[in-house]
Design goal:
alpha/beta; four-stranded antiparallel β-sheet; 53% helix; globular
Length: 598
């Protein structure tokens, strides 16, 4: 289906051509003066300059040549040259009836032959997820779902930090505490134990201790660097120990990401890119783009147009060690080889912007990525406390993500304590509503912006919040349940019939609240296309909030189940079923689940 704006633009473009002007001037937009009209065509203003003619004259000519197909309730040429449009109920009813039976409610995917890789994890093994991991996880998941909605084959990669300094520090401290472990015996030739010699809880204590110690003890730090070098070089015992640690870490990470309704197609780590590093560096040497600088091997990425410092991309440190630059470069080599993606999107902290600019320039310079592949850095802002600083625990520590999720869930549960529901129902509702509060509170902000975490605001059942959107959906389900009882059917049957066009919008004398709801529904494809084009989940949130608001105004001003006119009542049922369908689609794009009751 075409969008409603495309349909209007086609009509106006044809009229402009008939009047002797270029069709491009027929573009229509949503009115910025909803008190005057619903849509506008402002092309006459631009055409006036090209054709040296008064814009109001052009506008009047175009209005006269518009088709008399009952699409418009009114079309007016207004000085100095605007064309104001109010749609007829007839075209809206027809458009919404078609949306109701469309698989994606009228949205047409435009990227069915494309592939996108989304890098949105970045967790380090042997370390628990903390609040800093929240934004990349939930923004990345929504971006993946948005692109899939547009037809992309999407591949989410956790891209674990499993190959660098943290592992070296863990190995070093484990050896200090338990030097007799067989994993540290260089002469051992037998099978290594299948079980990890430490628990996840022990690892969570070991790493911060080792990290703090390394900052004060140079010899200890050097041992950790050597451990990393030997792991990457293939030392047998270190590889076996690393595998055991990876197993228990991945299991915990999958559980915690799963609690956020976040999943990955790939659980690759930095280690998976390791086999590509040496061949990549050798190729860069052959191309003559790698050079020695202060003992390190680098690629210059500075361009003449740069007006700020742009350091070279480092392939090898002065001691021969591999750093993040090479790992990320090699990861792109791997992704291009395995998937040939049209887009690679990095959803990471915006403070890593310089690093990724260096990496993107280096892979372009080396010919690893061609012009037909987009490299996109979607840097996210931070979640801050009410003091405007990055969110911390009361004692100033980093809050575990698991604890944050539980805090929000408990806050919702307190609000629902007096509801007449079983404990099991309350727990399940608190889980879904709490997660919606947390995720929507984040996603309703542009990804690049910092925002204040306000648990009272986020869990409110009023305003631009996740619980408000879910409450609207539950309200619609309640109406449908009452309708089902009156008609002797069930809610699923009603929804199923609505999806096949059994309920139609036919009445042409709807009130203002009904018209506004129809118009909001009609803008679904336009809103989703914009969200996809801008890779902007917050655009989805904006649409859901506006749709919920217009529905609730409609609900308060109309009797739905009690409506006696059968045609009108069928239209109401069609309208609320379509509203629910769009809300369900929208929250799924945000990876939010809706409860049946609230």
């Amino acid at each position: 289906m075409k969008t409603i704006l495309d349909i209007l633009t086609d009509k106006f473009s044809t009229a402009f051509e008939k009047a002797g002007y270029a069709a491009e001037y027929g573009r229509c937009v949503v009115s910025n003066r909803p008190d005057l009209c619903e849509f506008q065509c402002n092309g006459a203003m631009a055409a006036a300059k090209a054709y040296k003619k008064a814009p109001i004259k052009i506008a009047q000519e175009v209005v006269e040549l518009l088709p008399n197909d009952q699409s418009f309730k009114s079309v007016e040429a207004i000085a100095p040259g605007f064309i104001n449009v109010i749609l007829s109920e007839r075209i809206l009813n027809s458009y919404l009836n078609e949306m109701a039976i469309s698989k994606k409610s009228g949205f047409e995917p435009k990227s069915t032959d494309k592939t996108a890789v989304i890098d949105y994890g970045g967790a380090n093994v042997a370390k628990p997820l903390h609040v800093g991991h929240l934004r990349p996880a939930i923004i990345g998941e929504s971006v993946k779902r948005l692109l899939a909605f547009d037809g992309y084959k999407t591949i989410g990669d956790a891209h674990l930090g499993d190959w660098g300094t943290p592992i070296g520090l863990i190995f070093t401290e484990m050896q200090v505490r338990n030097p007799s472990l067989v994993f540290f015996d260089e002469n051992y030739t037998g099978e290594y134990p299948a079980e990890c010699p430490v628990t996840l809880k022990e690892l969570e204590e070991i790493y911060p201790y080792a990290s703090a110690k390394s900052k004060e003890d140079e010899e200890y730090r050097a041992r950790a660097r050597q451990a990393v070098f030997e792991l990457q070089s293939g030392r047998r015992g270190y590889r076996a120990l690393w595998e055991r640690i990876m197993d228990i870490s991945k299991a915990d990470l999958k559980k915690n990401y799963g609690s956020l309704n976040v999943s990955f197609e790939l659980w690759y780590g930095e280690s998976d890119a390791d086999p590509y590093i040496v061949p990549m560096i050798e190729d860069m040497k052959k191309q003559g783009i790698a050079r020695i600088s202060e003992g390190a091997l680098v690629v210059d990425v500075k361009e003449e147009s740069d007006n700020k410092e742009m350091p070279p991309c480092m392939l090898l440190k002065s001691d021969g060690a591999v750093g993040y630059d090479s790992t990320d470069l090699a990861t792109i080599v791997q992704r291009m080889k395995d998937f040939s993606p049209n887009k690679i999107i990095y959803v990471v902290d915006k403070r890593q912007g310089l690093h990724f600019e260096q990496v993107f320039r280096a892979v372009r310079k080396a010919g690893i990525v061609g012009d037909d592949t987009e490299l996109i850095f979607l840097g996210n802002g931070t979640m801050n406390g009410k003091d405007g600083k990055p969110f911390k625990t009361r004692d100033g520590g980093v809050l575990r993500l698991e604890a944050l999720v539980q805090d929000v869930r408990d806050h919702v549960a307190e609000k629902m304590a007096d509801r007449d529901l079983s404990d099991e129902e309350k727990n399940e509702i608190a889980r879904k509503v709490g997660l919606a509060a947390l995720k929507y509170g984040d996603l309703s902000n542009a990804a690049t912006k910092d925002y204040i975490f306000d648990i009272d605001k986020f869990t409110s059942f009023e305003g631009n919040t996740g619980p408000y959107i879910l409450y609207t959906m539950v309200r619609i389900k309640s109406i449908l349940e009452k309708y089902s009882q009156v008609t002797g059917s069930d809610t699923k049957e009603v929804l199923s019939k609505a999806a096949t066009g059994a309920y139609k919008l036919t009445v042409l004398d709807g009130n203002d609240s009904e018209k506004k709801l129809k118009l909001q529904i009609a803008m679904f494809s336009e809103a989703m296309a914009q969200a996809v084009a801008e890779i902007a989940p917050h655009k989805v949130c904006s649409f859901l909030f506006e749709l919920s608001n217009t529905f609730n105004s409609f609900y308060h001003e109309n009797k739905i189940v009690a409506e006696e006119n059968e045609d009108k009542r069928n239209g109401f049922i069609a309208l609320i079923c379509l509203t629910l369908k769009l809300l369900e689609t929208g929250i799924d794009l945000l990876a939010i689940e809706a409860p049946e009751k609230m």
